[in-house]
Amino acid sequence: MRSTLPNTLASPTTPKNRNRVRPLTDSSSQAWTRARLEKERRDWWDTRVTNNVQVWQCLKAATEALQEGDLATAQTLLDVQGCTCPSGQLWSRVYDDRGAEYKVPEWLVIEPAGIVEGEEASVIEDKTNDATAFDEAALGCEFVIRVRFSSLAPDLKMEVREREIIASIREKCKVLAKLDDDHQLKLIYSGRPYEDHETLESHENWSYDNDHVLSCFVSARKPHVTLEEPLGI
Hints:
The chain is of the alpha/beta class. 32% of the residues lie in helices and 17% in strands. It contains six helices and nine strands. The strands form three sheets. The protein has a five-stranded mixed β-sheet with strand order 6-5-9-7-8, with helices on one face. Strands 1-4 form a two-stranded parallel sheet. Strands 2-3 form a two-stranded antiparallel sheet. Strand 5 (142-149) and strand 6 form a beta hairpin. Helix 2 (53-67) runs antiparallel to helix 3 (71-81). The chain is globular, with a radius of gyration of 20 Å. Residues 1-29, 130-134 and 222-233 have low confidence and may be disordered. This is Ubiquitin-like domain-containing protein. Residues 1-29 are annotated as: Disordered. Residues 144-203 form the DSC E3 ubiquitin ligase complex subunit 3 ubiquitin-like domain. InterPro entries: DC-UbP/UBTD2_N (IPR032752), DC-UbP/UBTD2_N_sf (IPR038169), Dsc3_ub-like_dom (IPR019413), Ubiquitin-like_domsf (IPR029071), UBTD1/2 (IPR039869). Residues 24-117 form the DC-UbP/UBTD2 N-terminal domain.
């Protein structure tokens, strides 16, 4: 039996969407189609590399069970993995048997309002594909750079685009270094910190033709708190 679920995704097709949960990409300028929702969900699960990978796999399976209305299977999956869900809502916070916290956004579990279906969805997807190709061209050529993390060794290589902004590069660094959202990253080159709106070439000495190294300073995340509440969905 399915419970009554709230509307979650911001979409221009849905009124009063300012307080809805935002997905990975900015949804304020694009309509949400079924294909886009499924892709966003797949991409989100594919980038869960922190903490225990087996727990993430368990949460994904439990999420799929809930989407099918199978509450018993979802609860069993959590029990077997030793996970705790104090709020009774999988899209809130879940803790493993060591007290590590896992966050699953609402839009991964709950069927969102405002999904565009049918012929309108096909038209929107075609326009979105064209816009994506244009955006990539506007960002310029793709280069491979080296990133030196304060918390890792040796340097790691990463692909970026010529005019890609620092905010985007920083998120790529998190995925590359397998860091979660609780970590704070500061990108620096030759002693100068970058601002989010800048590009790498905002530094006068940066050149993609040279084998420059981008420094990434990582601050420690907040410690997890071990909870002893009973399991629940």
